[in-house]
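Can you give me the bound-state structure? Components:
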Amino acid sequence: MAQDEIITAAVLVIGDEILSGRTKDQNISTIAVHLTAIGIALREVRIVGDEEGAIVAAVNVLRERYTYVFTTGGIGPTHDDITADSIGAAFGVAVDIDPRAVAVMAPAYAARGIELTPARLRMARIPSGADLIINSMSAAPGFKLGNVIVMAGVPDIMRSMLVAVTNQLRTGPKVNSVSIVVARAEGEIADLFAAHQRAYPDVAMGSYPSFSEGQYRTELVLRGADADRLEEARVGLARMLAERELS
Amino acid sequence: MAQDEIITAAVLVIGDEILSGRTKDQNISTIAVHLTAIGIALREVRIVGDEEGAIVAAVNVLRERYTYVFTTGGIGPTHDDITADSIGAAFGVAVDIDPRAVAVMAPAYAARGIELTPARLRMARIPSGADLIINSMSAAPGFKLGNVIVMAGVPDIMRSMLVAVTNQLRTGPKVNSVSIVVARAEGEIADLFAAHQRAYPDVAMGSYPSFSEGQYRTELVLRGADADRLEEARVGLARMLAERELS
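Here's the bound-state model for the whole set.
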């Protein structure tokens, strides 16, 4: 791998409950923070319902476009859990009960005195050619097929699978970020900030406003792989803000 | 409008800060709950960065596919706010300072003793043919162009714009939902629940597990437009769970 190769990713959240508003997604932010920390650039997120056509279409677009696709949701034992079958359909491979998954699940359930019912065996259905993602939280594994990583929707289990799969991932240069917070509305710093962005085209600059208790607040965020260049841009911005009495 | 016409929507969240994990999206859930409550079916969500090509591509796919597209983010005064220009590019229309927007913004800023700088005037740049979304939280308006509704990313302002635009939207049959919570793992109720889904194909049934403090919990959610049918399905499910001593 070239040291400066950019590794990209998309997240596909699967679940009617997110689209109906019944459940608030908690996984996108966790995955975004994790990928940024290990040097994978998250480029796109999609949320679709429990519908095979929608899942297949999204997976096939995203796996072509990005280095990795991370899915969450739809790998439980109930009839609305259709992610494994949908991934199989997307890749055009069979989905069957995988002896490796059964070998992981059976002793774990037995130890907890839980019966391995036909419903629970649904969670051992893995597309042909996939590697299992064994994890510490759940007896039922996630899996990785090609560049698609399939994880649970329950946040604790998702996190465990994300950690478990991480050492199998290629990563690129880590993007660093620094920020300056000013007690100003965006409109007051926008011209200066745009000029600074033009002076440092290799540093990504974003401005994030908030307003609470009658007080404007704007966070100016600078992001880039070169830490020295980033620090130079930050110091320059801080100086200009001070000169114009905006800091 | 036919009473039973299904009205659909997508949400497009625009912002590097969500993809980097710096900011946790708070708007998707708010919009999902609101649309469900007024009888609009949210079918898909996408999150893209502050990049015109990605925004244009997503807007043009989604506005063809769904009745409405709601965007959040990227309409502030700074250089990374490129949503208005991207929407203009998606529709192939010009984007200029709109006298109607200036007429709203100028007195609001004057009343607060704030200067209408060139940076702030960027927020008056509206694609040709759009209607403004005047709202109570922000002097700078959102806008609606065709079936695309463009809103701020700051949650309080987004909510205000969402409320302001609501009476301009067509709505369909409201989807009701009822639920039964059992202190069981999904695997124990999955077979019964799947059989019940087969008996009521017109009712959408989903199962949502959680686990905390050593206790399994599964929420069985039934959704549908016909309240009587929904209640019949709920009562039947509760009876079956009781008979098998699973409730």
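A couple of observations. The two ends of chain A are 42 Å apart (CA to CA). The longest helix of chain A spans residues 227-243.
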